[in-house]
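Limitations

Structures in this collection are predictions, not experimental determinations, and the ligand pose is part of the prediction. Treat each record accordingly. The example that follows, with 2'-deoxycytidine-5'-monophosphate as the small molecule, is included so readers can see exactly what is and is not provided: the inputs are given verbatim, and the output is the predicted complex.
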Amino acid sequence: MIIAVDGTLASGKGTIARALAEAFGLAHLDTGALYRAAAVALIDAGGDPADANAAASAARSLDPASIDETRIRTAEAGAAASVIAAHGAVRQALFDLQRSFAARPGGAVLDGRDIGTVICPDADVKIFVDADPALRAERRWRELVAGGADVTLDAIAAQLAERDTRDAAREDAPMRAAQDSILLDTSRLSIDAAVSAAIAIVHDKTKAVPVR
Ligand code: DC
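Predicted complex:
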């Protein structure tokens, strides 16, 4: 079984995807982490995220096993990831890795922006997660502040709007809900309620029963 979880920034898609993987005993790939790690490697090497060739070369050299979770989670890494993700050559460089992860025999949950539309158009279940932008900004701001970052809510709200627009407007594999996806709006849901709703979507669609 392949489950595609796409959605906007700070919508809860990562948490939901991880919980679905756990519940149904599937492997999980956070595809945003690949774009973030490639962006961090590029910046470390003195490269410019706007440079498609340099960004594609960083993406091709990426070793998913050596991703530094702390470094890729900053707002700067996220912003640079969104910039390099608009280059077709970068998306191409990360395509096979994502496809082969999805094709593993035990099945998988992948979360990102183009999983249901481009990476796994034949996924058994496609969920698009979204929430009110003001609530998403507040969630992301709380996370960053809890991690010690010195940022204002206004700055985070502006970054979020900029990234949503860039991710949805790019020509190559823009963020959008697949036609056959199910929308999960988490605006008024606790994390537990959102996870339960996602599990119910998978069960309704596939009759699979959670193992945990
Ligand atoms: O989900 P995230 O914030 O970790 O993703 C970081 C950036 O990577 C996001 O702004 C757009 C890009 N991305 C993408 O274009 N396609 C994906 N499948 C996943 C992420």
